[in-house]
Amino acid sequence: MGAWMIGTRSPSRRASGVSRQVITPFCPVWRLCTGAGNAVAGSGLVTGVRMWAVGVLAAGLVVAGCDGGAPRPDASPSPSASTAGCARVAAGRADAAATLRPGPSEGKPKATAAGEALVVDALVLGEACAPAAGAALRIWHTDARGLYGPKGGDDCCFYEALGTSDHSGRFRLETIRPAQYPEPNAPAAHIHVRIDHRDLRYEVTMVFGFGSPPATVMPTDGPVVVPLSHDSAGWRGEAVVVLAS
What we know:
Blueprint: E1 2-3, E2 6-13, E3 19-26, E4 31-33, E5 39-41, E6 55-56, E7 86-87, E8 99-100, E9 117-125, E10 136-141, E11 159-164, E12 170-176, E13 190-197, E14 200-209, E15 216-217, E16 219-220, E17 223-231, E18 234-243
Parallel strand pairs: 8-12, 9-18, 14-17, 16-18
Antiparallel strand pairs: 1-6, 2-3, 4-5, 7-15, 9-12, 10-11, 10-13, 13-14, 17-18
């Protein structure tokens, strides 16, 4: 089956603090949402989503072994996904100290666009499916208009947070649901998560979907689909990330 690929524009910074744009392609799977509730299926052409390549679609929450394109500056080489995956378990609630609430960074003003509340409970698993305890985390995403910062483009960030996973490899994200970039053919709305664990750096991208995820979670250094539900408090989701080894 042919697989389409989406790219995300990831603002990353040199040591000097000057930001630049990095295009990170990834292979989404299963059933994604491009924004405003528009679901797309992983088999065929999708309006409003950038197409890059044809590959093999893995039957799992994420696709392992996708071509990541040119190496990302500021990131370690992507480890290869070589394990058979981990059985899906409930992410559960993280310790209070592992709750991340993204806000303005580097003196940036607060976002003026009101967004819908989003809570994601996440579990990070490492080697042999063991919890990745104490992993360093950096999270950033766009605001409710699809902008990273007040100047648009890769000016970052209205929403950024740093933290660590708890002793069970869990963290909680309390933020707003980001929007797609305000441009034609924008990729699906997403949240960037950088994970540093045992001298390796991973950058995964949370994208949103609906329905029941597969029972096995495959290793990734790319996309993680977060199934969402909605209640009176806003949007809720769970993410299980298996780090490629």
